[in-house]
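Review session, final week

We close the course with one last complete record, chosen because it touches almost every idea we covered. It is histidine kinase, a protein from Bacillus solimangrovi with 716 residues. Go through it on your own first, then we will talk.
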Amino acid sequence: MVKINRHLNVNLQVWRGNVFLFNIIILFFLSLLPIHVLAEEKVNNYPLGLKYEVFRDSTRGVTINEILSGKYNEEFIKSESKYPYFDYTNDAIWLKLEKEVIGEKFNEMTWLEYVDRLEVIDVYFVKSDYTYEVQKGGLYNLGEQKINFRSILFRFDPTDIEVIYIKLIGEELPVSVDTSLYSYEGLIESIKDYKFSSGFFYGFIGALAFYNLFLYFSLRERAYLYYIIYLIAFMLLQFLMNSLDVEYLSENLPVWFIVDAIDYASLLLCVTMVMFGQEFLETKKILPKLHLTLSIFSSLSLFTLLFFWVLPDSITNVIVPLLALIIPILLWISALRVMQMGNRMARLYLLGWTILLVSIILQALSYLDIIAFQAMYFDVIPQIAASIESLLLSLALADKINILKRQREEAQELYTEQLVKEDKMKDDFLFRTSHELKTPLHGIINISQALIEDDDNKKEQLEKKLKLIKSAGYRMSNMVNDILDLAKIKEGLLTIQLSKVDLYLTVSNLFEMFRYIADGKNIKLVNKIDKANRFVIADEDRLIQVFYNLLNNSLKNTNAGSVTISNDVKGGHMYISVEDTGIGIAPHLHEKIFHSYESISTNNDLGNGGLGLGLSISRQLVQLMGGSLDVDWSKEKEGTRFTFSLPISKIESKVYEEVSSIRLPALGATIEEQTSMYSNDMASPMSDRLDILIVDDEVLNVEILKDILVRENYNL
């Protein structure tokens, strides 16, 4: 309970710290806003949107003289917006600003600022005698700028000025109006405020980019690289939206590039935000459908960027804001889905993306003329949102790296534990192997020594001792074969030769092989294989090996009762069961006994009951033959039933004798029985004796071959 409370207290402290940090960030960035944003009207700065009268010249042929003649006075309509917006239009927009509408403050003003980029901005300062001074601005007249600044500035003497007319023409740009009148002091203060806030913004984002670049080179996490690219793309877009290219690069950039630069940067940002979002949220693995959708929209953005000059303006003017709206929404949905799936690293990403998404949606909806145009949608709000979002994304990346680090540490711990476990299993296996091999080896050595020293061995005693030696040899051979088979299975080198196998005769032969052991323990061997359904598709040698392991396991764990083998046909498979009345297997061991090197001791727990390979190899052999092997039923102190399946061989049923013409030697069979069993099959068909040369570096092998071949009447 103390640990839980401590964990909750730590989490609460972290939560409070995050909330406090977030509030500090909001207040800090609000403090950086230019004063005229928080309070619209100042003595030194006078926004003009609502003061204008607007006339739309659809012919673009109306002149200032015609305007001054009063011919179009009735066409001018009072503006109802602080920031009039006319979208993409072929009309020439005329704005009329009368001195009397401004009042006495007009005499303090000496500068007119037009913020938005546009091809043609002609300003006519009309005096009381209807003479006028014209100043040409806009992208086509950047060389006539009196001051290199991000907006277009017009200086005038307010003395005797009665009215100001502004003519706006947009060739490839939407016509939006964000204008102000300034005194000299007001203009200086506005420039100072803007330089400070924009300088802080670009410095902050640049510092984040360099910091994350350092982390990328340290950690080599691709998400950091994509984040840096995203930051650069976002800074580029803000640089262009703030018209800093006009202020600093206008002399070196062609007008057509300045006109389309914001669209280029928007498309590039769409591509980079998808790259970063997909990498950070791991959408390819977690949300494959959304990942594909994001990739499609990213490819569409890249295609539009590459072929921007080929596509008509009517398409690009719609597709760019739509992509800028759809992609952030898809990324926001992806982050929400990832967080709902329990991935905590998506929380900060979702929060940061929500803040930025509001800004992007406002811009896109404004471009599409769905909501009223506001200058701050493209100036102040994006900078604040981007700064907060960039910081939160950086924190989200740090959180992700911490989570990945923790996961790697946990994986390393699990790997270390697995290595320790495997090392212990190796030691246990070596111990069991040495123990299992040592027992029959001692028997062979001791019985052989007794045969050498005892001259009074009678035939029955000799047979009994030789029988024990043979059994020990079989036991050692089976252990070695199990080890070799396991190695072959792991390396994929074990081959299976499938053929038609008579299940009934195979079981009968195996029972003969185990008869000696079963009789010694008073265990009855029962063959219940259905003679009408006796054929399966299997590798006969490997099937015998499976039966051998299962029967050996049953006899070893059964002290009295019976071992029964039966079959049943279901679908296209035959299900073969080996059931005993032994000690049974505890439920929690039903699956574990099929693991390599796991065996059951007499107290029904994992122990030193053998090498623990038989059941593992048997299951894998059955799987290679197209079936499965499992514990079908088991109850402690009552018995166990193993069941495995094999494909059925569909042939006509025939009546077969219950004893095969070729039988397996019984465990414990006498030498005479084995010799007579094999001599019928191995007898030389040739009446003449053959000469055979034996060459082997193992003396034991030479002696065994000599013994066999002499009995078969070969000359050595």
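Two points worth writing down before the exam:
Confidence is low (pLDDT under 50) at residues 1-43, 604-608, 651-687.
The chain has five domains: 1-32, 42-182, 190-412, 494-683, 685-716.
Good luck, everyone.
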